[in-house]
Design brief:
Number of helices of chain A: 3
CATH architecture of chain A: 3-Layer(aba) Sandwich
CATH topology of chain A: Chemotaxis protein chec
Radius of gyration of chain A: 15 Å
Order of helices and strands of chain A: HEEEEHHEEEEE
CATH class of chain A: Alpha Beta
Number of strands of chain A: 9
Number of domains of chain A: 1
Largest sheet of chain A: 8 strands, antiparallel
Oligomer: homodimer
Strand content of chain A: 25-35%
Distance between the termini of chain A: 19 Å
CATH superfamily of chain A: CheC-like
Helix content of chain A: 25-40%
Largest interface: A-B, 38 and 39 residues
Chain lengths: 162, 162
């Protein structure tokens, strides 16, 4: 039974992490024009997103679960500006669309890398402090911390391949 | 072009609302044991969820978009207790699973009522004050406010049939 007990070396499945690492590097390089540096992935032990601006994508089909692209406010502002080619205010529909589209591209690219017959949902974008995104407790959540010249972000991957 | 301009009588598509109204009534009656009263649906004009505990389900296939089941804290506590058959604390994985499962059943039932070939994602559960769930700006979001003896909740439907 998986439990959130103290453990120094949780198991990280490279077959799940690597497609997302490649996807983040590709999407951020091609679409935002920045090099993303990937840090050591870890297993999330609490139901709290890493940063306060999140694009959430659901997977269904033979991959189920969800993927959250989570940004700090300042990173999101700069990344969105570079991606959209103009400054967009947090809280506007265009800003949410841009965050959602980044999440969509990372999830879509990773889906192809994963090689499964899955569909991905349109993104939901959640903005605010003090909220938590909890995925299903039966699927562990891997956090892939990333950084780039615009600031920090993370990809939280909570999927299962069938 | 759809824009969030002042309008007293926004268009509400009964073909989209009715499957959710039926789904909410069915699921809450059968699975929670309460009668849900449905109030007048309205078009959401701001990117803010109606209540602070949300189960989000993504749709893909020939229905795209997302559906959010949004509860007040007190309604969620009582509904989850009745649904799960035991008291669960907000913030625990079991509580999030129960909220997610309610969202999943409402979305799944509505999907069958809608008659489309769509997949629904596993739920993401977001808990906290002061957050906003923004869906794609190209799809209007209909809020269906609901009430029952345990308190208030709402179904926020932001989907498009292709």
């Amino acid at each position: 039974m998986p439990q959130t007990v103290e453990t120094k070396a949780p198991p990280i499945d490279a077959k799940i992490v690597n497609p997302f690492v490649t996807a983040v590097r590709d999407v951020f390089q091609k679409m935002v024009g920045v090099e993303a540096t990937i840090q050591k992935p870890y297993l999330k032990m609490e139901a709290k997103t890493t940063h306060s601006i999140c694009g959430i994508i659901g997977f269904s089909g033979n991959i189920t679960g969800s993927v959250v692209l989570s940004f700090s406010n300042s990173a999101a502002m700069k990344l969105v500006e570079s991606f959209a080619g103009m400054k967009l205010e947090i809280g506007t529909p265009d800003f949410a669309d841009a965050v959602g589209e980044l999440a969509n591209m990372v999830a879509g690219t990773a889906k192809r890398n994963l090689g499964g017959l899955a569909s991905i949902s349109v993104p939901s974008v959640v903005i605010g402090d003090g909220f938590a995104v909890a995925s299903m407790s039966s699927i562990p959540c891997l956090v892939i911390p990333c950084t780039c010249s615009y600031g920090d972000f993370a990809v939280e991957v909570s999927i299962k391949k069938h």
